UniProtKB/TrEMBL annotation:
Gene Ontology terms, MF aspect: transferase activity
Name listed for the protein in its UniProt record: Polyprenyl synthetase family protein
SUPFAM superfamilies per record: Terpenoid synthases (SSF48576)
The keyword Magnesium belongs to this UniProt entry's keyword annotation: yes
Length: 367
C-alpha cells in the first residue's frame, strides 16, 4: 500500500513541523520545560498510525466517488486532521500508562517512569514516583491540547465550513466516548466484586466499545469521511464496518496483552494480568472455570509481583477453559461483520480494497 506508506511519512513530517513551531513557545518558559518537548517527540515518532490511516481512507472512500475533484488544500487538511488524531492517541497512551501503572511502552520506559527516573538521577527532593505521575499527567494534557490546536488549524485549511463542523462534532464525540470508556475500565477493575458473571462480561464488552473500538477505528473513519462531505448513508456504512472491526482490534490487543511476545509487543508478557485488566478474555475465563479455580484466578489477577510461573498458571486457565478459543472465534465473527458491511457499499473501490487490507493488519498482528 504505497499510498499508506506515503501517508505515514506525511504525518510524521506534519507532527515534526508542529512540534518545531511549539519549540520556541515552550522554550520561552524555561529550559527545564523542554523535557516535555523531548518526550512529546519520543511518543510521536514511529508507531503503526492505524487511526491516521483509517481517517485517510475514510476520506478517500467518499472523495473517490463524488463529483468535486480533490484539491491540494483538502489533502493538506486531511493530513492535518489525521496528525491531530495521532496527537490525541499519544495523550491517551500517556494517561493510560499512568492509570495502569505500566512502566513500559514500545519496549522503552513509559512517560511517568522516565520522569521518575530523571528525578532519581538528579537526586531531587520529594517522591520520585509522585513527580513522575504528575509530570506525565501534564504531558498528556499538553498533547491533548495540542491535538485540538492541530485539528482547528487543519479544519481552517479545509475551506469547507460545513464539512469542518461535521468533523469537529465527530471528534468531540470520540473524545467523550474514550474518556467515558476509560472511566468504565477503571470502574470495572474495582467494582467487579459486586457483579455477577453475566454483568462482568457485558461490562467488559462496554469497555471495549467505548474505550477502544469507537476511537481506534469507527471515529477516525467517520471523521475522515466527514472531511470529504460524506452523506449520512456513507457515515452509517463506515460505522457498520468500523465498530465491529474496532471490537476485533481490541480483542486482539487483549490476547496480546496476555500471550504476546515481549520482544515483539514492547511490553512484558502477561502485563495485562499484572495490571488486573477486566477484559472480555478474563470475564469469559471466570465464567467457564470451576469455583476453586476462579478463586485462585481472582487472587492472582492484578498482583503486580506475579511470577513467571503464576502468569503461566493464569494463561493455562484461559486456554484450558476454552476462553481463548472463544475470543478467537469472536474476532473472526467481528471481522466477518466488518467485511460484510463493505459489500456493495457506495464507497470508492480503491478505498474499500485498502480498508480490507487494514482489516487483516489490525486483527492478525503480533504487536
Amino acid at each position: 500500500m504505497a499510498e499508506s506508506v506515503r501517508l505515514v511519512d506525511l504525518i510524521q513530517h506534519r507532527l515534526d513541523e508542529f512540534l518545531d513551531d511549539r519549540t520556541s513557545i515552550v522554550s520561552s518558559v524555561g529550559s527545564d520545560v523542554t523535557a516535555l518537548l523531548d518526550d512529546s517527540r519520543r511518543f510521536l515518532s514511529g508507531g503503526k498510525r492505524f487511526r491516521a490511516q483509517f481517517c485517510h481512507w475514510g476520506w478517500r472512500s467518499v472523495a473517490g466517488v463524488r463529483e468535486a475533484p480533490v484539491t491540494q488544500r483538502e489533502l493538506d487538511a486531511v493530513v492535518g486532521v489525521a496528525s491531530s488524531l495521532e496527537l490525541f492517541h499519544a495523550a491517551a497512551l500517556v494517561h493510560d500508562d499512568v492509570i495502569d501503572r505500566s512502566d513500559t511502552r514500545r519496549a522503552e520506559p513509559s512517560a511517568h517512569r522516565r520522569f521518575a527516573d530523571r528525578h532519581l538521577e538528579r537526586r531531587w527532593a520529594g517522591d520520585a514516583t509522585a513527580f513522575g505521575t504528575s509530570a506525565a499527567i501534564l504531558l498528556g494534557d499538553l498533547l491533548l491540547g495540542w491535538s485540538d490546536e492541530l485539528l482547528d488549524d487543519a479544519l481552517a485549511r479545509l475551506g469547507n465550513p460545513g464539512a469542518g463542523r461535521a468533523a469537529r462534532r465527530l471528534f468531540n464525540g470520540m473524545r467523550t466516548d474514550v474518556t467515558a470508556g476509560q472511566y468504565l475500565d477503571v470502574l470495572e477493575e474495582n467494582a467487579w466484586v459486586e457483579r455477577d458473571e453475566r454483568e462482568l462480561l457485558e461490562a467488559a464488552r462496554r469497555v471495549i466499545v467505548f474505550k477502544s473500538a469507537k476511537y481506534s477505528v469507527e471515529a477516525p473513519l467517520q471523521i475522515g469521511a466527514a472531511l470529504g462531505g460524506a452523506s449520512e448513508a456513507q457515515l452509517e456504512t463506515l460505522s457498520s464496518f468500523g465498530l465491529p472491526l474496532g471490537i476485533a482490534f481490541q480483542l486482539r490487543d487483549d490476547v496480546l496483552g496476555v500471550f504476546g511476545d515481549a520482544a515483539v509487543t514492547g511490553k512484558p508478557s502477561g502485563d495485562d494480568l499484572r495490571e488486573g485488566k477486566r477484559t472480555v478474555l478474563v470475564a469469559l475465563t471466570r465464567s467457564k472455570v470451576a469455583p476453586s479455580v476462579r478463586r485462585a484466578f481472582d487472587e492472582l489477577l492484578g498482583d503486580p509481583q506475579l511470577t513467571t510461573e503464576q502468569v503461566l498458571m493464569l494463561q493455562g486457565a484461559m486456554r484450558d477453559s476454552g476462553a481463548l478459543d472463544e475470543i478467537e472465534q469472536m474476532i473472526e465473527h467481528e471481522v466477518h461483520r466488518a467485511n460484510a458491511a463493505l459489500d456493495e457499499a457506495s464507497l470508492a473501490p480503491e478505498a474499500i480494497a485498502a480498508l480490507r487490507q487494514l482489516t487483516h493488519r489490525v486483527t492478525e498482528r503480533s504487536a
